[in-house]
Amino acid sequence: MTTKKLAAGVLAAAAVALGAPATANATIVDPWVICNGTNCDSSAQGDITWHNRTANVSGIIWDQGFGSTTIKFRAYANGKQIGPEVARTANDETSDPNVKSPRKIGFPMGDTNLSGGIDEIRIWICFTTCVDSTVEYRDR
């Protein structure tokens, strides 16, 4: 049995993580929620659908107030980052329909040729700026 984990990091706020046990061929859906600020003015939520070696991320980003909200995703296998970081931004102050808040997101992560596949996706929420050195995450 393989353990699929979703570790979520939040800049200067809290950290969120969700665990997902899975067998080699099972498809597991992991819900995730992440927010920034005292009242969660900026937030995102969605699902990660775990597959044999990859995962699909889907969700929605909300942005309120000055600036924008960016959500970053990184896939890992045994602690090593696999593939590029994926970032999506929402902004309630724009008329651009591609980034207007609320913004729906969806994309695959992982490598179909990676033996064992990815076992973790970390999620960061960034309000206006992101600083990786202040990211926190923990397992649930």
From TrEMBL:
Keywords: Signal. It comes from the Bacteria. Residues 1-26 form the signal peptide. Residues 86-106 are annotated as: Disordered. This is Secreted protein. The lineage of its organism: Bacteria, Bacillati, Actinomycetota, Actinomycetes, Pseudonocardiales.
